[in-house]
Amino acid sequence: MFQLDEKDEAILDVLRENSSLSIGKIARKTGIPIATVHHRIKKLRAEGIIKKYTIIIDQVKLGKKMIAHVLIKAMPKIDHIALLEKLMKHDQVEDGSAITGEFDLIIKVRVTDIDGLDYFVLKFLRTFDEISQTESMIAFRNIVKE
Fold it and tell me: Which long-range contacts (CB under 8 A, 24 or more apart) does 121-124 make?
């Protein structure tokens, strides 16, 4: 297991806030020399600690105001992970997990409104022979740790 020190943590904190900052700006914000920041970021990437740099899109401003969590029960003898990987290809599916309990999978879906959720469940999920049952739960509020 890779151990982070205070410098690594400081660099990661700055990158979490804004991954597009230059190495020079990261150095200024952390008080760590530029060469050290460069070396540390290179090491964190090589170790797989930093997997990628990305953006956060405001889905509400794009009209996708509703979030639903959909529980999915697979048919017997179905490969749950393979099914989850198929579901994850849909652009309205944001996240998914294989879970324990009565249901096998849970996916987080972002849609425009109730009609969008209805369409997603009835016209997309119900086309899968591998799915025996679904249960949708609409989120009243979603708070994301950024």
Answer: 121/70, 124/90
Residue-wise pLDDT for 42-92, tens only, equals 999 999 999 999 888 888 899 899 999 999 999 999 999 999 999 999 999
Place of tokens 């999978």: 105
Burial of 34 (0-12, 13-18, 19+ CB in 10 A): middle
**In the block, residue with structure tokens 């017997």:** 76
Sorted by where each starts, the structural domains of the chain and their CATH numbers stand as 6-46 (1.10.10.10), 60-138 (3.30.70.920)
Contacts with 131 (C-beta within 8 Å, 6 or more apart), sequence order: 72, 73, 74, 75, 83, 125
Provide the β-strand partners of residue 131.
74
